[in-house]
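Case study.
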Amino acid sequence: MKKIVLLTLISGVAMSFNLFATTQKLLAKKEQVTNLQWVDPFIGTGGDGHTFPGAVVPFGMMQLSPDTDTVMRGVDPQPEIYKRCAGYHYDDHTIVGFSHTHFSGTGHSDLGDLLIMPMVDQVLIEPGTAADPDSGYRSRFSHDQEWASPGYYGVELLDSNIKAELTTTERAGMHQYTFRKGEEAHIILDLTTAIYNFENKVIWSDIRKINDHTLVAYRATNGWANNRQMYFAIEFSQPIDSYEFINLDDNRYRCMGCLGKEKHSTIENKQVKEAAGKAIKFVASFNNPTAKPIKVKVALSAVSKSNALENLKAEIPDWNFAHVRKQAEQKWDGYLSKFEAQGTTAQKRQFYTSLYHALQAPSIYQDVNGEYRGIDGEIHQGKDHIHYTLFSLWDTYRALHPLLTYIAPDRVGDMVQSMLDHYQQSYDKMLPIWSFHGHETWTMIGYHAVSVIADAYLKGIRNFDTKLALEAVLATSNSPIYDAINEYKEFGYVPMDVLPESVSITLEYAYDDFTIARLLEAMGKPNDAKAYFQRAMSYKNVFDHSVGYMRGRDSKGNWDPEFNPEEAKYMGPFTEGNSNQYTFYVPHDVKGLIDLIGGDKKFEQRLDALFDTHLSDEMIKEHEDIAGLIGNYAHGNEPSHHIAYLYNYAGKPWRTQERIRQIMDTLSSDKPDGLAGNDDVGQMSAWYIFSAMGFYPVAPGDLSYAFGAPQLPSIALNLSNGNVFKVEANKLSHSNKYIKSAKLNGQVLKLSFITHQQIMAGGTLLFEMSDKPNKQWGEANADRPPSLSN
Amino acid sequence: MKKIVLLTLISGVAMSFNLFATTQKLLAKKEQVTNLQWVDPFIGTGGDGHTFPGAVVPFGMMQLSPDTDTVMRGVDPQPEIYKRCAGYHYDDHTIVGFSHTHFSGTGHSDLGDLLIMPMVDQVLIEPGTAADPDSGYRSRFSHDQEWASPGYYGVELLDSNIKAELTTTERAGMHQYTFRKGEEAHIILDLTTAIYNFENKVIWSDIRKINDHTLVAYRATNGWANNRQMYFAIEFSQPIDSYEFINLDDNRYRCMGCLGKEKHSTIENKQVKEAAGKAIKFVASFNNPTAKPIKVKVALSAVSKSNALENLKAEIPDWNFAHVRKQAEQKWDGYLSKFEAQGTTAQKRQFYTSLYHALQAPSIYQDVNGEYRGIDGEIHQGKDHIHYTLFSLWDTYRALHPLLTYIAPDRVGDMVQSMLDHYQQSYDKMLPIWSFHGHETWTMIGYHAVSVIADAYLKGIRNFDTKLALEAVLATSNSPIYDAINEYKEFGYVPMDVLPESVSITLEYAYDDFTIARLLEAMGKPNDAKAYFQRAMSYKNVFDHSVGYMRGRDSKGNWDPEFNPEEAKYMGPFTEGNSNQYTFYVPHDVKGLIDLIGGDKKFEQRLDALFDTHLSDEMIKEHEDIAGLIGNYAHGNEPSHHIAYLYNYAGKPWRTQERIRQIMDTLSSDKPDGLAGNDDVGQMSAWYIFSAMGFYPVAPGDLSYAFGAPQLPSIALNLSNGNVFKVEANKLSHSNKYIKSAKLNGQVLKLSFITHQQIMAGGTLLFEMSDKPNKQWGEANADRPPSLSN
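After joint prediction, the assembly is written out as follows.
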């Protein structure tokens, strides 16, 4: 807190020296009530949150952030690489440098493009090790002299006494390095480092100095995305006084017919200011660095160097760091003001930081001239929409995408259209599964793009090609080449002898099919809808009545003989989970599931057992993703996210209320390690936002929300239609965690559900809270939605 | 000969079965007098000619040709790699496969993209060795069952009993494989092989099956051109019955956080019909292969897969191999009919094969939709001209480009415009030096693009941006970053302590500056011209009067103390040559050079000494390019090409006549090893064509030609202006090699020179030949051009 307040002051001072200052002074009053102050980008950078603390704007292509330990060229993979999926970990004590692309909260990773690091006097071209930072260009740092806020990151590099500051626009970033000592400043541009690096990750790179202060560069890497191409435009605020190109590529081309000579009967043009190869670095040197800060602007493009230059010119035309920062803050402020939340400082820090993390992706993947690189590797012209990338759909269809329909509805249509771009440009004629930067990773399961599309369409968002959307949804859900859709359709389930993770896949296909049925219904195609509602019942085919669990089943109909409901076996029938968890994965027909399990009481007991039965490490030893445990409930991973809400469907909303508070109290905080597991590109954060308001989209596409309990005394949501939807929680306290009663705009709510339409109509959802459960309220959830069995 | 006649018949038979046949029959009479029959693509495939025998159309982007020994992945570079710059060498006995890009006659190499080879029954995925062809998919072959003619190549693969045939369009090629045995045919697409291959040459590749008979592929290689990108569209004439993707990339991406597992907590989509990595192959299999030939169409693009598909569809829409071949032959026939030559079969074979080799490059480097990849790596749209690549300018400015102004004048303007594209897109703001496929190799010396531009402009070719051309010529010749132009301007020569090859560079800059002066003159800028005429005199600054030779000189003015006029020292003051040769490199002021050397007599003695003094291997041990020796004269390399003509300037044309015949008799033949050295993308062939006609452009840009002696009894050149320029040599014979007299259109020629204007005016240049030299004729070459000293 103190740090952030201080920064606001510093920023204000800086602003008064520039042309922008007048406007800013007029805005000063408004700034005092900004929610920027509650965002702490360090939340999630500890533990396994995997968020990054650096500078970014909402949905920005540029994520400019410090890396504390990337794996370097020629160094063996570190055992702790998972810890640094976002490049930075709060536990670390050294900063390697600042790179320009980062995932927020993923469990697997890539990126970390173009690392930049300033030095004084001595030139070091290798980063050195964390154990011996003096062996390279990395520097020690301290969290006491480190500051992060939306659109800004700053740190004192203790070894060199340089203050490094970062800010960004959508496609460009600015570094500002303030030197306090030294005769000569050196700034290294290192094209060899990467996040989730490994030997030979860099396929090719080049860098070229095009005038005395500008460079362009290119790098293709083979990582999670193969042959991922990124172009860079780099500009320094003052002419480079001297420079060095470094080529450490030991496999670089040598003429073989030249009798041992490197060149073929000519003179290499050594004056060409370029280096190309697999291990390229560049060092720019500046005299008299203490005279004024040295700034570096960097713009990205996935298309070309000329586009990177164009992006740079368009987005950061001058050298006013404070102005760029202010613009970034205004962009953040616009989104952060969607909510007006009351609560303790810790609550507001958690809430607004969650909102901040929910606005990271899908991210823009298009140049200012409209060009982008498609999934086919080709350059396309986006005509009437912004093209987005980074669809971590297995995670984000659950709560993030539903949340975006409220807080960034203007972008949702373009995000859908971007998935349709993917569909059209995909040789496989598939919507994205887990895609980023023009690459389908095929990570995780299901075809949850259909859920995102159905949810948007059903909520009335139609600024995308709806006809193409229907085509894409049908083609994807019937793809002959994807995983085991053929067998799913043939057997009514995915046989475990056909594919691992067969039960999870069956269950998730079934849910996805429910959303397609809902979409078809809404599009006026009831017959087609019926067939998909039928497919959505497939979950019943992997429920083994003899044990009362979802269970692997082979193509002959035999149940998995090695079945153990606690075991999360790698390449077993479940995806990052066990049967205890996945048996609850029927979000679209909870009533049907309750019937299968044997009624409300049995269902409630099974939910209790899930939360109360300790899950031994032995059972999950191969899954680093299964984290944030309460018994078998794993809050750190997505298959559990809806489960606490399921008590509602058994007429026991007060039990959900207990569980949500239990999760809030034990598995989240406003500290760096405050996330119970990977934020997963905002899904964990979206869970927090909905849950803090008191409800959650158990089955997106249904448009109903099941109640938990409000966690903050008041949260108002400013809707895009001009309405305000406010949740008030009277008498909310540590002990008053139960809902005594609920009223929507004065009308008593008898059931513990609310609909999208009710939210959009605005008004106040007023909860009376109590320290005792109201066990009668919601007990008769007879019409509890959603249900295919109704 | 017999082979080619037979082929014409086969082709005729094939044609009668298609729609095209009627037209062809009408053309049949004309076909009987076609010059196609005289072209033998095998000439130059032996010795060090470095030409390829495969199928190509004039200036085609696609060069589809057999490779007899490329160096494979994981195999050590072969000592004889220089021998196989064109992929094929006549000495070899096995064919590895057929690849789609080849240089014609270069001394260094690259390319060999996408190797395709058919097999029967047994699938082999490695090529095996020449010593043990059965160890891989390669096959033995015999020249007795091998056929090549313009636009066609065929061979019997003896191990598999498959007849392989190839033909092409500009951007696409067709393979036709006739199987005579076997249950199953296999066709491997190998993305790991390359010409001038070496470990890690393949940066990245991928291949994808997009339907049952079509694939698209990509490959980036690091060779002479770094990160050279090529895209492929591949279509089979029948559906693939089964297939295999092969990924031998042992460095391919493995998830490092996945506890030893390859994939991260999900199932890789194995059904995606794609492979990507650094060592990718694909095998297509077909049942019942003897039923009908299996054909494969392949199109190239340097821009994208979609462009490759578009090129394929546009250029080879159907499966009519004979039709594609016939089209290719018609294109060749159009160019080959530019000349009507009489002579012995061997002479006509040499002459028309030279013409064939002179029409290989610069080659088209642009897709049918106009897009091409520029020197900046970016995609550009060619609006009003065809974009060409492959500017081997140090070689080709001498005779090839001057020749093209007569035989392909319609293309010359576009070639110049392509060099201007290069200039505009070059970060270095330079015209090409030695460029191909969007890459400047900086190979060889000088800035000879200016010579090509000046020669074209002076000859009245103006269909390019002449204003931009002037800008480019001036910028290039004053480039602050290229080699040693700065020092050249400062000292009047390139000091040997600044750059190796300093004398050669000085001399060639001086010549180039002469052509710029000529251009400026023609553009009406006499003052600017004067300055360049002055620069053109710089050759005098490296002439050491004390020894009478061009000699290395340092920046203090001291002469090279290790001077030896015979020594061709690697990284010494001369480029692929010695002072004996380079002292004659003042093509633009031979009179001035004669004065330096001490008058006509001394000059003649020095020329004689050049030809008559044996050059020991010791002196040239490091230069594989210095070949085709007569004494110190190296016909196999370009610095010598003009030297035999210099006797003219000393009033001794009869000595030139003797030397030309000596060179013709001893250093060229119509056999595979008939070229005395690398054809160098047509330069050697252009030398032959001019020399066979009896004259040669000693100093392009001057527009004068010095006489040698006609070598064929009659050669008529059909000019683009409708005129015919005919050279007749009365009484020419083995002994009658001397010119007794010469008449142009009945007017006696007293000097042994002719001008471009005289050629373009058409008419007959009639030589009377004799077995005795006419020592008086041309003795008084007082006004011998060109001369700066006049």
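Observations recorded in class. Chain A touches chain B through 74 residues (CB under 8 Å). The first helix of chain A runs from residue 2 to 15. We will return to this complex in the next lecture.
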